[in-house]
Amino acid sequence: MAIRDDILTAVLEAKRLHNRFDSKSRADLGEGRIDVFGMLVDMDIPVLFRPLKNLLGAYIDEPDRGVIVTTRRRLPVQRFTAAHELGHASLGHKASFDKKQILTRALFDHESRFDPREVQANAFAAALLSPPWLIKRHMERQGWSRNDLADPVVVYQLSLRMGTSYSATCHALFDCKGVDRPTYEKLLQTSNKKRLIKKTLVDPYVPSNLYGDVWVLTERDNGASIEGCHNDILVIKVHEHSSSGYVWQFDDLAKAGLLIREDSRASEGNLHIGGVVYRKLIAEAKGSGTCRVSFREIRPWQASGAPLNSMNLDIDFSGPLTSGLHPVQREALLEVA
Question: Is the pLDDT of residue 211 over 80?
Answer without folding.
Answer: yes
